[in-house]
Amino acid sequence: MRVRYIVAAFCAGSALLAAGFVLGRETAPTDYKSVREDVLASIDLAKEIDSVRNRELRLSRALVAPGGHIGLHSHQGDPTIVYLLSGVLTNHHDDGTTEEFQADQVFAEFGPRAHWVENKGTAPAVFIVANIHRRE
Questions:
Q1: Is residue 56 within 8 Å of 131, Cβ to Cβ?
Q2: Rama region for 18: left / alpha / beta (φ>0; ψ in -120 to 50; rest)
Q3: Pick from 61, 96, 97, 113: CA 20 to 30 A from residue 34's CA?
Q4: If we measure between CA atoms, which residue out of 80, 65, 83 comes closest to residue 114?
Q5: Residue 89: phi, psi to the nearest 5?
Q6: What is the pLDDT of residues 79-105, one digit of tens each?
Q7: Which residues, in sequence order, are bridge partners of residue 126?
Q8: Structure-derived torsion over alpha carbons of residues 41, 45, 46, 52, reported in degrees to the nearest 10
Q9: What is the rounded distance in angstroms from the CA atom of residue 2 to the CA atom of residue 122?
């Protein structure tokens, strides 16, 4: 008889514990609350990419040391958005235009126009790069 009471008490306790877990669970929200999103740059991919075959969406962190550079290249078929975290990055285009970007600034490169970037500053230029990369 005593075993029945122990088993019954154990079952009742387990049921209460399970009910507590179920009742204590919150429903996942489906809305946004206290969120701000600013689109910093965008590229119409339909104009840039014929196919996504052998492509991947990449997000990278890059650093160009003082005096360093990334040589002349284009982003034809490789649309890229750059967000500068720190330092200064000078962007040179093959049409002779030059732009200087500092922390919290963003720029996009796409299409056949070639460019190269350099760090003429005294601190590393650190930036985030998002691009549709062609896998080799």
A1: no
A2: alpha
A3: 61
A4: 80
A5: -125, 125
A6: 999 999 999 999 999 999 999 999 999
A7: 63, 86
A8: -170
A9: 81
**pLDDT of res. 61:** 95
Q: What is the 3-state secondary structure of the chain?
A: CHHHHHHHHHHHHHHHHHHHHHHHCCCCCCCCCCCCCCCCCCCCHHHHCCCCCCEEEEEEEEEECCCCEEEEEEEEEEEEEEEEEECEEEEEECCCCEEEEECCCEEEEEEEEEEEEECCCCCCEEEEEEEEEECC
pTM value is: 0.72
10-55 tens-digit pLDDT: 555 666 555 565 556 778 778 878 878 788 888 888 888 888 888 8
Tokens of 93: 């285009």
Across-strand partners of 82? 107, 129
Q: What is the pLDDT of residues 57-76, one digit of tens each?
A: 999 999 999 999 999 999 99
